[in-house]
Structure formats: C-alpha cells, structure tokens
Amino acid sequence: MMYVLSLLVLSCTSVYSQETFGGAYRPPQPAGGLHFSESFHSSTIEDSKWVTSKAKKKDDDDNEVKYDGLWVLEEPVEQKLPGDKGLVLKSRARLHAIAAPLDRVFHFHDQPLIVQYEVTFQKGIDCGGAYIKLLSHSNQLDLTQFHDTTPFSIMFGPDKCGEDDKLHFIFRHRNPVTGLYEEKHAKKPDVDLRDYYTDHKPHLYTLYLHPDNNYEILIDQSVVSKGSLLKDMTPPVTPPREIEDPADTKPNEWDDRIHIPDPTVQKPHDWDEDAPPQIPDPVAVRPPGWLAEEQPFIPDPDSEKPDDWEEEMDGEWEAPKIPNPACKDAVGCGKWTPPLVSNPAHKGKWKPPVIANPNYQGVWKARVIPNPGYFEDPHPFRMDPIGAVGLELWSLTPDLLFDNFLVCSEKSLADRWTAESWGQKQAAYDADAPGVVLKLFAATEKRPWLWGVYVFTVALPVVLIISFCWPDKRFGPPDQDYFYKKTDDPQLDDSVDPEEGSKSSAQGTKAMGSKDNNGTKTDDIKRPSKADLEVKDQVQSRRGRS
Fold first, then answer.
1. What per-residue confidence (pLDDT) applies to 59?
2. What gap in Å lies between CA 513 and CA 238, rounded to an integer?
3. Cα separation of 392 and 301, whole Å?
C-alpha cells in the first residue's frame, strides 16, 4: 500500500513540476558592481571569455605532461531547466586547465570578498577536485600558460579522493620579513560532506571573506565552517616569538636512557642460547605399515617424451610424476621423521634485567632563542589582488559540471544573483523531490536507528488516545455505572454460587445475632440498602436491553 501511495505522490509531483517549470531557463542578469559573473549561456567556449590553457607541467618522474583535458559547454545529464548550460570537465584522468579574466580587478582594501559557484558531480566522484583558483593579478599573467604553479591568492572548493572528503580554503600569505609566500589552510568543516559528492545534484559553494579577517564557508546557503585568518589557519599567519636554536646540538655525554641493563647480573652458566625451540619427539616410533622403501610420487609410466622435444633447447626430458599406487592404502611412504615437540632445554637469548638509570638526565631539548623571522601582520586579508578565475583540475571521474560563477563585494548583489540562478534551479529540483514521508523513509537507509524513533513517535500518541477514549473501569468517574470502589466487600453484581450463597446467608444470619466475649453484638455483613437494590435493578435492566 505504501509503495502504491509513493508512486502516486511521485507521479503527481512530476506532473506539477512539468507544468510549473516547463519553460526555458532564464539566465541571471549581471548587475553593476560585479567583478566577475558567468552563467555560460554562450554556444561554445570559443565564443566566451574563457581561455583554455596550452601549458605543460612536470609529473612525478620529471616528464612534461600537457593540459589536454577537454572542456565543453553543455546541458546537464539530468536536465531540469531546458537551456541551462554549464562548463563540463569531460576527460577522465587528464589534466584540465581553463581560466577567465575578471571584469574588474579585485583589490583587498576595505570591501569584503564574496565568491560563489555551483558544482554538480553528475556521476559522483572517485578521486579528483572541483575547486577554483583566484589568480593573482600581475602584468605577467598569461591565461594560455595557466598551470599548477601559476600564483593564486585564494583556492576554494571541494576535493575528494577515496574516503577523504575535503572543502578547501587556502590563501597565499606573503612573509613581510623574507618576502616569500606560504599557503595557509583553513580548518576542515565539522559537517559530513559525503552526500554532496554522491547525490548527483548541483550544490552552491560560497566564501565570504571580510576585511576584519573573518571568513565564512557555505554550502547551499548554509554555513558549514567559519573562523579567522589570524586564529584558524594552518600554519598560523603569525609565527612563534621564540624557536629552538638550530645551532644547538645534544652533547655526546648526555644520557637520556630511562632504564639500563643491570650491570651486576651475569648470564647463568647453564643457559644454552643455541638450543632449538623444537626437537624430534624422542618417544615417537614409526607407525606399523609405513612403506619407507616406497616414494610418495613416481614418474608416470604411461608418459612419453613429445616428438618435438629437443634436449639441446628444452633440456633433459623427465616424465611427470604421479602419486605412487603402492602408497594408496598405506599409512605413509618415504622417509619417516618423528613429529616435533617443544624443547624443554630451550630458553632463548639471555637478556639481563633492566633497572632505573642512575645517570638519567632527562629528555634533551635545544635552547630557545628569539625567532629572527618573527613578525606581526594584523591584516592578512590584504593579500595580492585578484585578476582572473581559473580551474586547474585532474579527476578520475568525468562530467564535472560548473555553473554560475560570481565574484563581488556587495552581499545584496550576491543575494540577487543567487535568487536568479540558484533559486530558480533549486525550485525545479524541489518540485521533483519526494515528499516528506518518502524522505523520512529514505533517511533510514543510512541511519537504521531512525526506525526506532519513528515507531516511538507514532506509538506514543496512539497509546495516549486509547488511554483517554477507553479508560480503565477502576479509575473512571464515581457517577458512572462502570465505577467500582476498590474494596473487599461483596458487590451488587457479584456472581454467587447458590450453595455458597445459602451458607453465606446462614452464616450471616447467625453472625448478626452473635455476641463477642464482651457481650457486644457483631455486625459482619451489612444488609443492602434500598438505594443499592434500585441501582442493581437499573444495571440488570440495561444488560437485558443490550
């Protein structure tokens, strides 16, 4: 029944989505003030502002490898909005590199940086990246030679290989003392990222970087990580004030052994280190019926040397061996050897016991000196300006789709772009999504313990309803006919055996006139009052009508 209802809900939802989102995709309209926007509504890459790299890089064996992976503009495999295209990485296990210049260079002054784009792992992903690089602006920047060592200011986006799910946020920081650049990595998000790589749906990745050095990382407009460039990067932006002196070395006479062999103990004279751990069993004897003269395997008498066998080339021919027929019913054949048993004389290599080292000086540590490379940079946000957006990737799984890139500094512009691009796409996906009930059932595939929560959630209201609608007779209101007080006295509608009843009546009559030792009358059983008899008659009449 549930299966039929599920199919009905899905079919109705599908019809609704076709009626509601059957029109063509409406690309978002870039507004003024954007540094970069791209929704890929061009017909081909050649007609767009994107430049395919023709560079080469050196692999691990120092061989030059071309960036020959194929990029195309095409619609998604699972198309929800006709006409919606994206940039697709098409080649498997090849180097891909493509970039586009910003419309306006972004300078890190007093305005925040907002970067976002969509990624769809249309076939999932086994090992590969889908991150972007915001390339540093310079007069030497040549997008046709974009490769792995091209300087970037920020690298941001998802990356996965095997069970290692990552969401990169890396920025290159310039050391003001040495002038060298060092990559700073943000902490890993605490959320589970697996579904984003496996559900084959588009996901929106957003980075907010503020002039006060704080950052936020969002997926599908939900914050998954946030922190500070000064406190939450590895290695930290600010180096330590003191470091260990690299010129300081441990003295040769420094003894850092906690325990040492006891020098006063000598190896016993009867200790045999050469005694083997096992020896032949001295009490074992050869079983009767053992054919010591026969070999377990003999040359096959029916085998003949092949006609094309050449001893000069193939060596001397030997017939293949077969099990000896004479040993078929025997206990064993060939040379008999007794089984091995543990050697009581075996003691192994002798080692003296260990004692606390009386000369122990502790763990040696180099002396600490002021760090000559120490500096303070209170504004790591002020990094090199950005001149282009680039994708330099390798993936075992093809058909990675990228869409709706945005670089700006005003949140209102980003919200508008998101509503016109991501919002439109999500509305189409939500229309085809299963209902709440089906989502709850789907959640149990990864979390079977949810069945217990569902059963408890449904059973609790049912038990409460039953308790209120059909109460126990013992606890109802006293003015109802089903109410009985908790007592040991006989009730009006108790069933009584005739013989037992006559005895009880006689005993009751006798008891009513009896006296105790003090001469006081006892009244063990009370006679029913007239009101009780009337109630009894009403109950019996109701039962007769029912």
1. 80
2. 106
3. 70
Classified as helix, coil or strand, 346 is coil
Residue with tokens 């986006």: 157
Q: What is the CA radius of gyration of the chain?
A: 45
Peptide bond into 370 cis (omega under 30): no
Backbone φ, ψ for residue 452 (5° rounding): -65, -40
176, 377 Cβ separation under 8 angstroms: yes
Within 8 A by CB and 6+ apart from 281, the residues are: 338, 339, 340, 341
77 HSE (CA, 13 A, CB side): 15
What is the 3 state secondary structure string of 459-519? HHHHHHHHHHHCCCHHHCCCCCCCCCCCCCCCCCCCCCCHHHHHHHHHHHHHHHCCECCCC
Contact 163, 193 (CB under 8 A): no
- What phi and psi values does residue 354 have, to the nearest 5 degrees? -100, 150
- pLDDT of amino acid 403: 96
pLDDT level of residue 477 (50, 70, 90 thresholds): low
CA 62, CA 322: separation in Å to the nearest integer? 55
SS3 40: coil
105-132 pLDDT, tens digit each:
999 999 999 999 999 999 999 999 999 9
Q: How far apart are CA 93 and CA 394, in angstroms?
A: 6
pLDDT at 21 over 50: no
Cβ neighbours, 10 Å, residue 498: 7
Give pLDDT tens digits for 50-108: 999 999 998 877 888 999 999 999 999 998 888 899 999 999 999 999 999 999 999 99
Q: What is the pLDDT of residue 3?
A: 39
State the DSSP H helix or E strand holding residue 234, giving kind and residue range, or none if neither: strand 233-234
Compute the distance between CA of residue 30 and CA of residue 414 in angstroms, rounded to an integer: 10
How far is C-alpha 104 from the geometric centre of its chain's CA atoms? 40
Q: Residue 383 in contact with residue 172, Cβ under 8 Å?
A: yes
Q: List the beta bridge partners of residue 245.
A: none
237 and 327 Cβ atoms separated by less than 8 Å:
no
Q: What residue type is 435 in one-letter code?
A: G
Look up residue 339 and give its DSSP letter.
P
The H-assigned helical ranges of 318-449 are: 411-420, 422-432, 436-443
> Cis peptide leading into 261, omega within 30 of 0?
no
For the question of whether the overall pTM of this predicted structure is more than 0.70, the answer is: no
What does the block give as tokens for 377?
Answer: 């940079």
The CA-atom distances, in angstroms, between 335 and each of 19, 285, 445 are: 88, 13, 62
The tokens of 512 are what?
């009513």
What is the per-residue pLDDT across 483-520, written as a single tens digit (0 to 9) for each? 445 556 565 555 555 555 444 444 444 444 444 444 44
Band of residue 312 on the pLDDT scale cut at 50, 70, 90: confident
Distances (CA, A) of 461 to 148, 380, 436, 457, 504: 61, 57, 20, 7, 48
Closest Cα to residue 377, out of 147, 108, 14? 108
What pLDDT, on the 0 to 100 scale, is given for residue 455?
Answer: 76
Dist. CA 202–CA 15, nearest whole Å: 22
Which residue type sits at 537? D
